[in-house]
Amino acid sequence: MTPSEIMESIDHFCNTAISWARSFDKSLDFTDGSIGEVEAILDFYHRDLVRSDEKPTQDQIWSMAVIWGAYLGEVMRRRIGEPCGWICEDGEFLLEAAGAKANPIGKAY
To answer: pTM (2 decimals)?
Structure first.
């Protein structure tokens, strides 16, 4: 994937997260404070899954992790600034800065 294709995907995931957060009466603005809002949403999902007899598939869980992890990663990227950027390695979106790599989507998963 090209860098612009990667950012188009990340932007799409972030916009989805922002839209979904509104259904929880949460506002995501890419600040450090919004991380707590995402944690509250993920905690709600976790508690809901524990109580439910109907369990999501691994693909459904991964899809949710991609959306929320991409948002969290974008908060990190904006906070770190240059030279931090998204890369796609072996089909996974990772953050890379100064040779170090982070996997916020994997962390959300």
So the answer is: 0.91
